[in-house]
């Protein structure tokens, strides 16, 4: 049996994925989580073979959970199922050690097949996205990405500094670096550009 944990913040999608996978004779859905923090706790409690997760969720994102699984060397495969057909997201997912990256608009039968492939040690990546992912590299480092994301959410440099334990000047430097690397006019344009590319 392939033991699966689902992490998805939309209840209807979560229910549909669970029902779909439970139709398979060799897949068992152990549980589901509506946000990243719950998913991380359930992951450690249930010890599934595969975590199927969305990217954008409250608390931890699917990518952050994948990074934790990778960092803690947990024997759990991570498969991301998302609406984000952005090469930047795929690159970051692969860097975080995910085994699968599938789009929500793919045919339903692809999911079960992909889980079997991943469980056997393979990789399941949307082919069109895989081609695009290597066309343009993400210029931002982790700190610039963090600061730019918070700035794009409307936080001031002082607020960001307090939250990340950085000085006001350091925050401004990170923002300035990010804006320069993206060739943007200001932080808002830089945020919009980076989101569009899937780098945030």
TrEMBL record:
<dbReference type="Pfam" id="PF00072">
    <property type="entry name" value="Response_reg"/>
</dbReference>
<dbReference type="Pfam" id="PF00196">
    <property type="entry name" value="GerE"/>
</dbReference>
<dbReference type="InterPro" id="IPR000792">
    <property type="entry name" value="Tscrpt_reg_LuxR_C"/>
</dbReference>
<protein>
    <submittedName>
        <fullName>Transcriptional regulator</fullName>
    </submittedName>
</protein>
<dbReference type="InterPro" id="IPR039420">
    <property type="entry name" value="WalR-like"/>
</dbReference>
<dbReference type="InterPro" id="IPR001789">
    <property type="entry name" value="Sig_transdc_resp-reg_receiver"/>
</dbReference>
<dbReference type="InterPro" id="IPR016032">
    <property type="entry name" value="Sig_transdc_resp-reg_C-effctor"/>
</dbReference>
<keyword id="KW-0597">Phosphoprotein</keyword>
<dbReference type="GO" id="GO:0006355">
    <property type="term" value="P:regulation of DNA-templated transcription"/>
</dbReference>
<feature type="modified residue" description="4-aspartylphosphate">
    <location>
        <position position="54"/>
    </location>
</feature>
<dbReference type="GO" id="GO:0003677">
    <property type="term" value="F:DNA binding"/>
</dbReference>
<keyword id="KW-0238">DNA-binding</keyword>
<feature type="domain" description="Response regulatory">
    <location>
        <begin position="3"/>
        <end position="119"/>
    </location>
</feature>
<feature type="domain" description="HTH luxR-type">
    <location>
        <begin position="133"/>
        <end position="198"/>
    </location>
</feature>
<dbReference type="GO" id="GO:0000160">
    <property type="term" value="P:phosphorelay signal transduction system"/>
</dbReference>
<dbReference type="InterPro" id="IPR011006">
    <property type="entry name" value="CheY-like_superfamily"/>
</dbReference>
């Amino acid at each position: 049996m392939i033991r699966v944990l689902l992490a998805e913040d939309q209840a209807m999608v979560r229910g549909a994925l669970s029902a779909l996978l439970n139709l398979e004779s060799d897949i068992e859905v152990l549980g589901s989580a509506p946000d990243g923090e719950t998913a991380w706790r359930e992951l450690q409690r249930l010890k599934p073979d595969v975590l199927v997760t969305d990217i954008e969720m409250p608390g931890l994102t699917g990518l952050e959970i994948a990074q934790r699984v990778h960092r803690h060397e947990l024997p759990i495969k991570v498969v991301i199922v998302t609406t984000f057909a952005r090469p930047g997201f795929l690159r970051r997912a692969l860097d975080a050690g995910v085994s699968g990256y599938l789009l929500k608009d793919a045919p339903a039968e692809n999911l079960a097949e992909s889980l079997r492939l991943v469980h056997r040690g393979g990789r399941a990546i949307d082919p069109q996205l895989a081609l695009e992912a290597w066309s343009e590299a993400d210029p931002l480092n982790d700190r610039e990405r963090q600061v730019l994301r918070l700035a794009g959410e409307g936080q001031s440099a002082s607020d960001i500094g307090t939250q990340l334990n950085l000085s006001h000047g350091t925050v401004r430097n990170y923002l300035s670096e990010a804006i320069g690397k993206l060739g943007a006019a200001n932080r808002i344009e830089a945020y919009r550009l980076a989101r569009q590319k899937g780098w945030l």
